[in-house]
Structure formats: C-alpha cells, structure tokens
C-alpha cells in the first residue's frame, strides 16, 4: 500500500524498472531456457501488476475517484490511511489535525495503527470526518475440525484425533 508521496514516487520508479526488465527478458527469448524465461516473465509481470494496482488506488484516492472502500476489521488501518489520502491530507497536515507530530503519524502508519487505543481511533475517525460501519458476523465458525486443516500425506488424522481426545488436550492451529 502506498501511504505517501515519497512511496508513490518510489513505486512509480520501481514500476518503470520492472517494465524495462520485462522488455529486456522478452528481447532475449532465444538465449534462454523457455521454462526459466516463463518463470521470470511471470514473476516480473506479477510485481508490475501489484505496482500498477497500488498506483491506481493511490491516484484514485487522491483524485477523489475512489470515495468508498470496504475493509474488514483486520484491515482497518488501511481504511484510515486511505481516508487520509482521499481527504487530501498529507501526513503533516493530518498530524496538525490530530494535534500531534508528523513523526507520530508516520509511526502510526508504519505500524498500521496497531498500537492505538479505541479512544484514539475514535478521535482519528472524527478528524477525518468519515463514516465507519462495523458488521459483526455471529455465524463465524467457532470450532475447528480435522477437515479444516490440510493433513500431510501419510499422516493418519484419526490417530491424531484419538491421541488428543485421550489426553484431554485442546489443540488450536491457526494459519
């Protein structure tokens, strides 16, 4: 995610470098292994696609083309940063609104707002003058079964379940 003008500039420069690298690779088709060439091209194209999507998002926010973004709770920090950009505030201007330093906003954003309090989050939303909707899904699965996990070939999952039940141990594995 591009968070400021410096990152925007760096991303645009990196995009040009990757596009040039792709041209060089495509021009050297005869001198390379076709499989290796395909892997290189796909890898570079994948990174180009990421850069283009980030640039498109940043420019869309800055120009006011993107006015609404849907984010899950785990991506709330991106919504805050996107709101700041969409409102036309750089990090210094936003810091002034929050009555804090530019360095503090830079820290918030580098940490993706992971260490702020709920009260501070409310202050930020008020300063940004944005609406935030929360949806609580009460039907989320609250327990796991063996079928929720990929069991490596050759491992007997029923044997593992039996051992866990016999020990009375609960094992939670999250990816």
Summarize this structure as a short list of keywords or feature phrases:
175 residues, mainly alpha, 59% helix, 0% strand, flat, disordered C terminus
Annotation, overall tally of beta strands: 0
List low-pLDDT spans: 168-175
Number of helices: 7
Overall geometry comes to: flat
Please summarize the sheet with the most strands. none
Q: What proportion of the residues is helical, as a percent range?
A: 55-70%
Mean pLDDT score: 83
Gyration radius over CA: 23 Å
Distance between the termini: 23 Å
Run of helices and strands? HHHHHHH
The class by helix and strand makeup works out as mainly alpha
Percent strand: under 5%
Give a brief outline of the structure.
This protein has seven helices and no strands. It is mostly helical.
Walk me through what this model shows.
With 175 residues, the protein is mainly α. It has helices at residues 5-27, 34-63, 76-86, 91-98, 102-110, 118-128, 157-167. It contains seven helices and no strands. The longest helix has 30 residues, at 34-63.
């Amino acid at each position: 995610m591009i968070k400021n003008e410096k990152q925007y500039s760096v991303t645009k420069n990196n995009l040009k470098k990757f596009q040039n690298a792709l041209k060089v690779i495509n021009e050297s088709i005869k001198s390379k292994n076709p499989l290796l060439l395909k892997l290189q091209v796909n890898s570079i194209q994948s990174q180009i696609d990421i850069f283009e999507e980030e640039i498109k998002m940043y420019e869309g926010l800055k120009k006011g083309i993107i006015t609404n973004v849907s984010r899950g709770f785990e991506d709330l920090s991106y919504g805050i940063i996107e709101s700041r950009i969409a409102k036309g505030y750089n990090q210094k201007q936003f810091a002034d609104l929050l009555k804090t330093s530019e360095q503090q906003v830079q820290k918030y954003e580098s940490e993706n707002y992971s260490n702020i309090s709920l009260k501070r989050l409310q202050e930020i939303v008020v300063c940004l003058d944005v609406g935030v909707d929360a949806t609580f899904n009460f039907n989320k699965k609250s327990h796991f079964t063996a079928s929720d996990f990929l069991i490596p070939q050759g491992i007997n999952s029923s044997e593992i379940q039996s051992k866990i039940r016999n020990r009375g141990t609960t094992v939670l594995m999250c990816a």
